[in-house]
Amino acid sequence: MDESGSKGQVAVSVFPATGPVWLDSRNIGTNGGTGVARYTQDLASCLADLGIRTAFVRSGRAGKQASSPGRLDASRRFLRALLPCRHVHDIQDGVAGGQPCCTDLYRTAHVRFKTFGRLTSCRADTPPALMHWTYPLPMVMEGCTNIVTIHDLVPLLNPGLTGIDPTRFARLLRALVDRMDMVVTVSETVRTQLIDIMGVAPSRIVNLYQMVDIDVAAVMKSTRIIPPDCLLHIGRVESRKNIERLIAAYGQSGSHRPLVLVGPDGDDRPDLSLPEGAAGQVIRIPWIERLSLLRGLAEAHALVFPSLGEGFGLPIVEAMVLGTPVITSRGGAPEEIAGGAACLVDPFDIGEISTAIATLDRADRQDSMYRDLVERGHARARFFSRQAYTARLKEFYARIPFR
Asked: What 3-state DSSP class applies to 280?
């Protein structure tokens, strides 16, 4: 099953402007990848399908990411942060139009906002038609339309679940929604929260969701690392993902399938030990190559994802594309994204999570309940296909208010 949709077709631009679209590169160089990195890469790929030229604003010399924090003197960074405006240069590297670049841009912008509470203005040699910030960053591009994608409001709604300062985050969101021309979200849940909590005018905020595009044949040819028939959780291992309740529920369920946790350490270190006397085994895998991760998801008995705070919940859709049943949280974005095609649980109720795990654990792959979840998951996943996402993107970009 290939979710590529429009991939491979001749691109015909529907962009009403002649200049390119620039995207920030803040997250795409993160080791191990992040959900925002996936979002950014998919956005660039689908814009290319639409015939829209894109470029990433780099924070170092062309083709390289910014130096690690220890390689740039802190005093030099602070002095740069004093500057209200940074110059984005066009670095000619054989790419049409060159590559926009500004030394240590993202770190100094954060230092400036943390110190002075002000956004950093970026002034380019040749501004793009549109700057699409793929994450709330404390900066704005001069001379063009600016859009920001806001993925979730977890630091405001549940400040204890992240290491992000809720006061500073609220200040940043306020500065951005006041300055941006349009705001994009990845779920109706987040869109409604921004309208209700931040007072964003509904006409200025659009939900485009995300896409999931998986080459299943390539996935199944990849190296098997995750044991098949396991119960699998994908994501950062932190309290936000409800790891301790998940492990307690797994221990109560009596399942002998291993519970595999794949993802990097988060902002805290949850207790990963099973309750005394519990059957089963918890396996921790900090990171594996994406295709092997997806093979593990395709071969898992179920995805267990009772998260406490999501703006979208990418593993939910990835599991559905790959034919793996999903247990996820009732309420908020996970329930919205699941769209009636998953087992929903109260994420605060260990007993309810345990019952759901035990029920699916006992189900054979040919069981009618199991097969029904798989079929409904496949149907739901089509809403997030590359073709569907590109259609939403095409409609949105065609009606952006340009300066």
From this structure: coil
pLDDT at 70: 52
SS3 label, residue 396: helix
Q: What is the pLDDT of residue 392?
A: 97
Nearest Cα residue to 212 out of 71, 125, 314, 343: 314
Residue 49 and residue 7 in contact, taking contact as beta carbons nearer than 8 Å:
yes
Reading the block at residue 148, the tokens are 């920001």
Q: How many whole angstroms separate alpha carbon 117 and alpha carbon 194?
A: 21
Question: What is residue 73's predicted lDDT score, i.e. its pLDDT?
Answer: 61
Q: What is the DSSP letter of 11?
A: P
Cα(85)–Cα(142) distance, integer angstroms: 9
Report pLDDT for 64.
45
Transcribe 252-266 into DSSP letters.
HHT--SPEEEES-B-
Amino acid residing at 184: V
Supply the DSSP string of 218-238, one letter for each residue.
Answer: HHHHSPP-SPTT-EEEES-BS
pLDDT (0 to 100) of residue 8 = 41
Cα dihedral 201/148/111/269 (nearest 10): 100
CB-based contacts of 14, cutoff 8 Å, min separation 6: 50, 51, 52, 394, 397, 398
**Placement of tokens 């006041």 in the chain:** 178
Predicted local confidence at residue 402, as pLDDT: 75
Phi, psi of 183 (to 5 degrees): -120, 135
Instruction: Write the DSSP symbol of residue 87.
Output: E
| Sign of the C-alpha dihedral computed for residues 167, 169, 171 and 174 taken in this order | negative
pLDDT at residue number 7: 43
Q: Give the strands of the sheet with 282-285, arranged side by side.
A: 282-285, 259-262, 231-234, 302-305, 326-329, 343-345
Residue pair 57/23 in contact (Cβ under 8 Å)? The answer is: yes
HSE-CB at 58 with a 13 A cutoff on CA atoms is: 18
388: which 2 tokens? 């569907």
pLDDT for 252 = 96
Exposure string for 75-94, b = 16+ CB within 10 A, e = fewer: eebeebbeeeebebeeeeee
- Those residues of the chain that have pLDDT short of 70 are 1-14, 29-34, 61-74, 77, 92-97, 403
